[in-house]
Amino acid sequence: MDMGLQGRTALVTGASRGIGLAIVEALAAEGVRVVAAARNVTAELKETGAIAVPVDLSTPDGPAHLVERAVAELGEDLDLLVNNVGGGDPGGNAVRGFLGFADGEWLSWFELNFFAAVRTTRAALPGLLRRRGVIVNISSNTARMPHAGPVPYTTAKAALTAFGKALAEELGPQGVRVNTVSPGPVRTAVWEGPGGYGAELAAALGVPHEQLLAGLPAQTGMTTGRLVEPAEVAALVTYLASPQAASVNGADLVIDGGAIKTV
Ligand SMILES: NC(=O)c1ccc[n+]([C@@H]2O[C@H](COP(=O)([O-])OP(=O)(O)OC[C@H]3O[C@@H](n4cnc5c(N)ncnc54)[C@H](OP(=O)(O)O)[C@@H]3O)[C@@H](O)[C@H]2O)c1
């Protein structure tokens, strides 16, 4: 299906693997000229044909340098910004209660999951306003279920969701739409990788990693019975970026296989 995005420009953060990579692939398939940012440029990212920019987005200056480079590489303003970068595990052991996290760790989670989006948006906004563009923030369903993950992570995601809502209100009248996508457990390295959160959780619970993954959909109340695929999140982002979503602004679209039970 042609989503009407041919020739548009986009910046996707956290794009070397997982959800970000799937978003780059989906946008590129729609004829979007994509700049893709992560610390490492993977072989999979190179294959997409996107313009890859290596950058650390957890630093105060990283986002502004990235946007400057993106606009220079594209030779024009951005139509779409996808603030996908997030996750992270600064302490190397995310399965802890509140008292287990010191200030420095709280700051690290917030730098990656909240301030990277704030700073990238600030840098990209003048161009997005000129193009009457679109912003999509990738939050998490744990923003609405903050007990279901490391508390600095879920709190930072709740802040990101609130940020998107406030921005939508301010920028809507100026022609820029802002929406949030909140996935539940997605089949990426976060869950499946040997050093990821899933592996840490399995070790903390004393169960084999494979067993944790097999039981995760039921444990988290996913009525679909399986993890979300990165391409499914990417399809939702592509829709939100498209003219077909012209009246969708300030929304928080949950894609979690039915894990959230409240209306
Ligand atoms: N997977 C899930 O179950 C799930 C659920 C809800 C929400 N989310 C959210 O969805 C987003 C993507 O998650 P994912 O599962 O795809 O994560 P992932 O597989 O860990 O990928 C994270 C991406 O971000 C990049 N990245 C990490 N730190 C960075 C930094 N300091 N500067 C620049 N890039 C950095 C990584 O590349 P480099 O390592 O090369 O930098 C990678 O491309 C995150 O915001 C996450 O919180 C995920």
Outline of this structure?
The chain has 263 residues and is an alpha/beta fold.
Structure write-up:
The protein is globular and about 50 Å long. The mean pLDDT is 97. The protein has a seven-stranded parallel beta sheet with strand order 3-2-1-4-5-6-7, with helices on both faces. The chain has a single domain, classed as 3-Layer(aba) Sandwich (Rossmann fold). By secondary structure, it is an alpha/beta fold. It is built from nine helices and seven strands. Helix 1 links the parallel strand 1 and strand 2. It binds NADP nicotinamide-adenine-dinucleotide phosphate (NAP). NADP nicotinamide-adenine-dinucleotide phosphate binds next to helix 1 and helix 6.
Write out key terms for the chains shown:
263 residues; Rossmann fold; globular; binds NADP nicotinamide-adenine-dinucleotide phosphate; 7 strands
Topology:
Layout: E1 9-13, H1 18-29, E2 33-38, H2 43-47, E3 51-54, H3 62-74, E4 80-83, H4 103-131, E5 134-138, H5 151-171, E6 177-183, H6 189-192, H7 197-205, H8 209-219, H9 230-241, E7 252-255
Helix pairs in contact: 1-9, 3-4, 4-5, 7-8
Bound molecules: NADP nicotinamide-adenine-dinucleotide phosphate (NAP).
NADP nicotinamide-adenine-dinucleotide phosphate binds next to α1 and α6.
**What would you call the shape?**
globular
Number of helices: 9
Spatial order of the strands forming the largest sheet: 3-2-1-4-5-6-7
Give the overall pLDDT as a whole number.
97
